[in-house]
Amino acid sequence: MPLCPLLLLALGLRLTGTLNSNDPNVCTFWESFTTTTKESHLRPFSLLPAESCHRPWEDPHTCAQPTVVYRTVYRQVVKMDSRPRLQCCRGYYESRGACVPLCAQECVHGRCVAPNQCQC
């Protein structure tokens, strides 16, 4: 690919880039979201004896008792989590990856330099 299209592509990516926390008028807020994960836990299982007690007249304590074993099983768990997100601070809006001031009234003979503040 020639150099010129690559340069234009790189510039285009920066122009439509995302906000940077170091840029002016960019604020951070925490966003909650849910996520599904696989969680392991131990579940008890009874192992029956290989030989059952065939003599009911004997004391039942002489018969083999079931053995409890624990096996790892998995389940899906939905958890709440949070992550930092960037947005323009109050009075600013995002334009081409930067936060620019918002003036409610149009600045007819000047430009908007701060929220609701025009400068000639």
TrEMBL record:
<dbReference type="Pfam" id="PF23301">
    <property type="entry name" value="EGF_PEAR1L"/>
</dbReference>
<dbReference type="InterPro" id="IPR052485">
    <property type="entry name" value="MEGF_diff_regulators"/>
</dbReference>
<dbReference type="InterPro" id="IPR057138">
    <property type="entry name" value="EGF_PEAR1L-like"/>
</dbReference>
<protein>
    <submittedName>
        <fullName>Platelet endothelial aggregation receptor 1</fullName>
    </submittedName>
</protein>
<keyword id="KW-0245">EGF-like domain</keyword>
<dbReference type="GO" id="GO:0005886">
    <property type="term" value="C:plasma membrane"/>
</dbReference>
<keyword id="KW-0732">Signal</keyword>
<dbReference type="Pfam" id="PF07546">
    <property type="entry name" value="EMI"/>
</dbReference>
<dbReference type="InterPro" id="IPR011489">
    <property type="entry name" value="EMI_domain"/>
</dbReference>
<keyword id="KW-0677">Repeat</keyword>
<keyword id="KW-1015">Disulfide bond</keyword>
<keyword id="KW-0325">Glycoprotein</keyword>
<keyword id="KW-0472">Membrane</keyword>
<keyword id="KW-0812">Transmembrane</keyword>
<keyword id="KW-1133">Transmembrane helix</keyword>
<keyword id="KW-1003">Cell membrane</keyword>
<feature type="domain" description="EMI">
    <location>
        <begin position="23"/>
        <end position="101"/>
    </location>
</feature>
<feature type="signal peptide">
    <location>
        <begin position="1"/>
        <end position="18"/>
    </location>
</feature>
